[in-house]
């Protein structure tokens, strides 16, 4: 910086201090005027988040934060968790989940499901929020729309249990051939391609929600774009949706079971993803619920908040590349990696957030089995960490592959938690086996693309359930599943899944899944990491908020506010 | 002057075209496309999606379609928020960023000039030392730290006073804007303070000041008309690009304070490979930056008659 090096004090022009103060006053006044002007201008943009606090018993209002703007509220195309959560509050399928996660009657009054077909009798006199009757035709229209190739829905596959759905999506059959018919206004008949004992739970999924054809067509391609481009049949309606700023839900006065709905307003007044900012809002009493990460647990404890735990249903594992020419095709190498693997250490010393469970099986603990929980009826083989055996297998692998040293590429996400995990594996493999692990960190989409292309040896991956049945995890490593990114291929796994898919007998199905569980372990198809859990805090006065692994989560539909305890 | 302006505008258009082209090709080189998601899609659905969005066409044809549409000011629809056009998203979110940005830049500009002048007047005395210390902090500490600390302070202050003095996050009225704008403008203000200080010190010993004073021009007038006016020139030079960088660089602040501005979509679009929004926001900001630079050059000539635009 070129400063004048003359004697400085002498160079100050007299009286300039006072002049500067005068300018300073002008500046402050100008700034305040500017502030007010901009405030006025901003009123016109309509972006407002005004809030009356986390819970307001008098008006039955709760205020919450939304992790992101709902990307898609056209139920045939929605794929993400936030859209699913909002849709779960404002729409209703044939069945729905109650606050205790039981399937209960939604639009359907009664139903029957066999191995080849399902039929539903709808409640009569139900109305959309605009007063139009809800009929069986609304379901036929929505389901056809979802499998229509021109809709190109990424969740079309969830309707593939219905006759001809797969063929329609690939453009081989007309949309009208879908195996669903409205026998009359209040009777819906579905033909199934295979026994689908969990079909009822599918009808609670957003892709299965009804859409009114006349309204859809009246929006001219903008269905779901704004609050007024939707009509609602769920417990709430969207009364205001300012994109990226707030979403406000109000009780639906046309909802058939409105007596069971206690809240009048669910105001998603903030759209924020920063965990610290969200907890700041919670602490200052602006929102009624917030998630915690490792860094925030201490703060929650200090404030003596009631910390709760939720298992979100997802399972995380290390996927192994089985493509031709990959070193990881070698069984002894995989076995060596398996003997090093220690999910408890990963969960307790690396991830450190309470609530996560060490991974033991691709089938998570919450899945239903024949009578009780699947994992209680068919326990997974315990994980055996054994470094000596690991080294033995590694030596064998080196010999078989004719190498002195093995270098593998591990693909992972690029975020603090993924980095911690991949670095943990890097140092662990180097220490125990002398194996070099190269880390390939990629942001979300890039990682997924590389997974799809098979550009990895090992990848930190995970899977969240689409429906509440073991099949959503069980068929993951079949040869035909596109989500099987390592291209693991074992005829026995395929055969077992075929058996499960062709039966509705829970004994037969669960035995097949148990066999798959064993094979994946014996053959080291994947290395288990953890089952994800999360911690969160809720306002003391807000009760009956449902959390679930499958379906809209969290669910405030039947929540209520209690008076302040004195 | 008119010829100069026209010339600069044509240069600007070429620059924007170059930005658009480079971004377009770079974007398509990145692995992954808008349809890559957690759940793999079947080949049929992927083919349907690509056909629907025109991504099955050869890249050169896509580029040509993009250029033709861009020429008409149409950036198509967002891949991540289907059924919403990129133009709508920009129109809706830019005013928010702009309001926040203007406020931050006014704050930074006024503060920078005042503090800079103050440090120059009290060179090597305590106000100078104190302000320069703050300047060093302002320049070296990244804005997300200021944002987080600022927000935490708000929580504490609100708890102490017992009511919401200033909201912790969100967007709406003046009370929502104040802290984010201060945080956003802090870095620029620190930088401008330093610039203003050195510029003031350089000018105070210039010949024309001595001449003016020996001519008997009143001191206050020498200060405001000769010293301040000349010293402020370099500040204005950097102010133009700062306007663009502050309105675009607000991502972190927007994220922490939950402000629905364009900076957020700018960054998120890249993460989501949202081709439409990437192109829309990049070209928009590119054009905005180029325009700012041109405006500053013209403004410069207006403030300082010695500059001839030829």
Can you offer a commentary on this structure?
The complex is a heterodimer of chains A (566) and B (310). Chain A has 566 residues and is an alpha+beta fold. The N terminus of chain A is likely disordered. Helices cover 32% and strands 20% of the residues of chain A. In chain A, helix 9 runs antiparallel to helix 12. With 310 residues, chain B is an all-alpha fold. Chain B has a domain of 178 residues: Orthogonal Bundle (MetI-like fold), CATH 1.10.3720.10. The longest helix of chain B is centred in the middle third of the chain and has 36 residues. Chain B starts with a helix and ends in a 7-residue tail after the last helix. Chains A and B meet through helix 1, strand 11, helix 7 and helix 14 of A and helix 2, helix 4, helix 6, helix 7 and helix 9 of B.
Q: Summary?
A:
The complex is a heterodimer of chains A (566) and B (310). Chain A is an alpha+beta fold and 566 residues long. Chain A has 17 helices and 20 strands.
Which tags fit this structure?
heterodimer, A: 566 residues, alpha+beta, seven-stranded mixed sheet, five-stranded mixed sheet, 20% strand, globular, disordered N terminus, B: 310 residues, mainly alpha, MetI-like fold, 0% strand
- What is the typical, i.e. mean, pLDDT of chain B? 86
| Amino- and carboxy-terminal Cα gap of chain B | 8 Å
Envelope shape of chain A = globular
Largest sheet of chain A: 7 strands, mixed
What portion of residues of chain A belong to β-strands?
A: 15-25%
Enter the CATH topology name of the domain at 92-269 in chain B.
MetI-like fold
